[in-house]
Design a protein that fits this description.
Elements: E1 5-6, E2 11-13, E3 16-19, E4 24-25, E5 30-33, E6 35-36, E7 44-51, E8 56-65, E9 68-71, E10 79-86, E11 90-92, H1 111-116, E12 120-126, E13 143-147, E14 158-159, H2 170-173, E15 177-182, E16 185-189, E17 197-199, E18 204-205, E19 207-216, E20 220-224, E21 234-235, E22 244-247, E23 250-258, E24 266-271, H3 275-281
Parallel strand pairs: 5-16, 14-23
Antiparallel strand pairs: 1-2, 2-23, 3-4, 3-8, 5-21, 6-19, 7-8, 7-10, 8-9, 9-13, 10-12, 11-18, 12-13, 15-19, 15-22, 16-17, 19-20, 20-24, 22-23, 23-24
GO molecular function, one term: serine-type endopeptidase activity
Pfam families: Trypsin
Protein name: Trypsin
């Protein structure tokens, strides 16, 4: 759940730590390339929560039932208090973000605080077999946010059937485009200083990217997140964690990890078309 380097894979997690009432992230992080989503995926939400280490973090999530959000386990593990939820496509073009600060960060948000600020709220749950990135064969980076009230006017997304990704021949994976959606901001040249591609906090908006597949394991889909790839438009990075990966309009995975600090390489996506994910998710659905 924390923003940290994974020793196992030499990767960085894709959640973003938020400091204070703004979005000064440590490190700041972003989607690489991609397209402003507008209302293309209105069922994709930003979630914001406090953790037991005192930090405040943001991730992405998807409405899969009128009162259930699908996200990543590292976006729910260790969360305290209520989870802030918003489906706004554009959060803020520039600082401040408009997010409230909890009166007691050690206990997280209260439902009353979030309601007073005009945000939906929910309670997070973590897959009981989540390995905290220690076991590639049992990754299980799947989380749920149970909303306190059903969402009206937004059609939930559908999770793909069991084994959907296994239907793709290995020779066709590189030619298969996956759509990732989330609330990371773009990596671009800084407005001042060195003109190297730099992860930028603002604008904070929902984006989508097209990514060609690269590798498939029983738990993980890997995809190429370089915006210069001739087959894709970019990749995911911090803040996109837990966001959906779509194939043919259904969710096949959620964003889990990346390999580089500038997110211009491979990304890892937890499969949700497998029984160990779906059996647990179904326990939250009516």
């Amino acid at each position: 759940m924390r923003t940290r380097v994974l020793a196992l894979l030499s990767t960085a997690l894709l959640s973003t730590v938020l400091l204070g009432s703004g979005l000064a992230a440590s490190p700041v992080s972003a989607s690489t390339g991609g397209t402003p989503d507008g209302e293309a995926h209105p069922n994709v939400a930003l979630i914001l929560y406090y953790a037991d280490d005192g930090g405040r973090y943001r991730c992405s999530a998807t409405l899969i039932d009128e009162d259930v959000l699908l996200t990543a386990a590292h976006c729910t593990d260790g969360a305290v208090g209520s989870v802030l939820v918003t489906f706004k496509s554009v959060i803020a073009e520039k600082a401040p973000s408009g997010f409230p600060t909890a009166a007691n960060p050690s206990k997280g948000y209260t439902d009353a605080e979030l309601a007073a600020a005009g945000f939906a709220s929910g309670t997070s749950s973590t897959h009981p077999a989540y390995s905290d990135f220690t076991d590639p064969d049992n990754w299980n980076d799947v989380g749920i946010v149970q909303l306190d009230a059903p969402v009206a006017g937004i059609t939930p997304a559908t999770i793909a059937g069991l084994g959907r990704l296994d239907q793709i021949a290995s020779s066709q994976l590189r030619k298969t485009l996956f759509t990732a959606v989330g609330y990371g901001t773009e990596v671009r040249q800084s407005d001042t200083g060195p003109q190297n591609p730099t992860p930028m906090t603002y604008p904070l908006i929902r984006r989508n990217v097209q990514m060609p597949g690269q590798k498939l394991t029983p738990q993980i889909l890997q995809a190429n997140g370089n915006e210069n790839d001739p087959f894709g438009t970019g990749g995911t990075c911090f803040g996109d964690s837990g966001g959906p990966v779509f194939l043919d309009g259904t969710i096949v995975a959620v964003t889990s990890y990346g390999y580089t600090s500038n997110c211009r390489y491979l990304g890892g996506y937890q499969r949700v078309d497998i029984a160990v994910s779906q059996d647990w998710i179904k326990t939250f659905l009516d």
